[in-house]
Amino acid sequence: MELEDILQRRKNYTFITGDALEILRKAPSNTIDCVITSPPYWQLREYDDNNNPKEIGNEPDFRQYVNKLTLVFNEVKRILTDQGSLWLNLGDKYNDKELMGMPWRVALNLIDSGWILRNDVIWDQMKGTQSCKDRLRDVYEHIFHFVKGKKYYYNHNEIRVSPARKPKKYNGELVSATGVSGKKYRRQIADSTVLSEEEKNAALKALEDTLADMEKGTIVDFRMTIRGQQRTYHSDSQNVSGRAKELAAKGYFILRMGANGHIPSDIWRIAPEDTWRADAHYAVFPEELLLNPIKATCPVDGIVLDPFSGTGSTVYTAVKLNRRGIGIDLSEQYNETAKKRMAYICKDLF
Ligand SMILES: C[S@@+](CC[C@H](N)C(=O)[O-])C[C@H]1O[C@@H](n2cnc3c(N)ncnc32)[C@H](O)[C@@H]1O
Predict the structure, then answer these.
(1) Which residue out of 65, 317, 330 has the highest number of ligand 1 atoms within 8 Å of its CB and is therefore the one to mutate?
(2) Which domains, and CATH codes, for the chain?
(3) How confident is the model over 50-75, as pLDDT tens digits?
(4) 155 Cβ contact list (under 8 Å, min separation 6)
């Protein structure tokens, strides 16, 4: 079986033609590191020219669609390693004027069948296509990040975004990326009528240590919260916020922004791909969309699988990032396109 070629490292990518559920059912358990996929959306497009009854997305009732996807992702859960991740891209659908909430219908079903949802990434595609006069344009889709267990592989250092601005000296004084020098905090601590002398000394020491770290370049920015001066960010209730607990116990806390950059947010502004539209495929993944999922949740040389691989974007990007890739698609024609695309990058890579 083609899958064996990848597992035994005889090849670093493969495309398998057939029904995702049937193929996954034959695959061994606990072998795949990461699955990234965009299944056909419900009643939105027809991909196969031959009206293949196995094609997902044409079910008359949306519940059948949700159930079919749940069966596929139950198999995905079985073949993922215990530290594996699933990234699932889904778009919504209007039915008789009503927004269906399809991505969440599927996501909630997956949660109910044992998946742990870690993120709902909003993919802001920036431009919508339709021109409706009685509602807003739709410009986003969901990318859900699911894991199998609480201890999963996640290399956050691979996806950190470098801070746009660094600390600078103004008139001999070091000022953080967003203009914080510590002067205001020093004054607030000294003038405080609610901190004890001991708390004041500890707060000042923590502030000076933080400024020293900024001078050394290990952090680029910070914020200090002092009892009686600033509020905690989320809640003052100690039951809700760990920060509120810290504030109550010590009289202050400091949030430090490291020089290694920050973790990307859960809103991704990425324009949809249209380069491979010449091959008559819709909904091609832009390469940029795949970078963070692959880098963060598949180790180098690990295996990325896309059970609805279309033109093979997931496999293509995985191989480019030194991972192994497996694509499954019902359509022979799309797999041929994917193989052509791979030949195109492989000539640069190998
Ligand atoms: C949204 S497209 C995926 C596009 C892909 N992300 C890309 O970058 O090209 C969904 C794909 O699912 C395939 N498909 C539909 N039903 C399927 C099934 N039962 N098993 C496997 N693939 C299926 C379609 O042929 C189509 O290529």
Answers:
(1) 330
(2) 2-159+264-349 (3.40.50.150), 168-258 (no CATH)
(3) 678 899 998 999 999 999 999 999 99
(4) 295, 296, 297, 299
